[in-house]
């Protein structure tokens, strides 16, 4: 007999809580056989009930983020308007270069190829101390130097992550699968050349859907997120609340000991590749040459 997935709607009566509160609940499923005494099998799972509005009671916080949005595809702006996220529009890359404060957001699906000045502008803004969030670019590349002094922009560290970062940001979010959709629209695949590191937009399995480029100056950071938070906004709470967590991660005040450093310490100050400890201070080329055939969940590279 062919087995098919079945969708079941379970109505619940939730207690009245303050706006924006996430409720914890317990789901118990019992299966009984016909004409059999007792339960054949029982499964219990903790679930979380999220509000529709991820920014409930946070309007003042959103205002203080001072978001500037560059959105050639105009999809992100529509979602921001729907979610009552205040933002200022940057009409072109030149106006983006003039930003001096606030959170910079590059709308989902923007082409780094069509707007050739955009990749360098993102790095310049991050290196000047601003938080920059680039949502799932569609094509193009970002040059990140780690082997040469020829570029003025040099990151202190780069963190590469996969879907495990979602549960790290918020353990209540689903980091395994989003309902009826592909989580990652793409990511960045790294190519080592003689005197530069090139991160190219790719939809392949080797691409990293989460790339953080960290700078020492004033906590500036560029985050390129390949998860489709805008495209899959209506699919469930994870895309919506992941956007909240990214805003928090990029804008919260930190000491000189950056988030990337904290991640590496929490992983016993090293990542295991091929079963051997890799020194995080090795060169990019060395790290690339020792990358295993199966994708690791995270890598940390430090200049």
Give the N-terminus to C-terminus distance in angstroms: 58 Å
Separate helix tally? 8
**Morphology call:** globular
Provide the CATH architecture of the domain at 59-252. 3-Layer(aba) Sandwich
- The arrangement of helices and strands along the chain is EEHEHEHEHEEEHEEEEHHEEHE
Q: Bin the strand percentage.
A: 15-25%
Q: How would you write the strand order of the largest sheet?
A: 4-3-5-6-12-11-8-15
CATH topology of the domain at 59-252: Rossmann fold
* Whole-angstrom Rg: 21 Å
What does this 3D model show about the protein?
The chain is α/β, with parallel strands linked by helices and 303 residues long. The chain has a domain at 59-252: Rossmann fold. Helix content is 21%, strand content 24%. The chain is built from 8 helices and 15 strands. The chain has helices spanning 59-65, 75-82, 93-97, 118-127, 164-169, 237-251, 259-266, 284-289, and strands at residues 23-31, 41-49, 68-70, 88-89, 104-106, 131-135, 141-144, 157-161, 187-192, 197-202, 210-214, 221-225, 271-273, 276-278, 298-302. The strands form 4 sheets. An 8-stranded mixed sheet has the order 4-3-5-6-12-11-8-15. The chain has a 3-stranded antiparallel sheet with strand order 7-10-9. Strand 5, helix 4 (118-127) and strand 6 (131-135) form a beta-alpha-beta unit. The longest helix is centred in the C-terminal third of the chain and has 15 residues, at 237-251. It starts with 22 loop residues before the first strand and ends with a strand. 32% of the residues are buried.
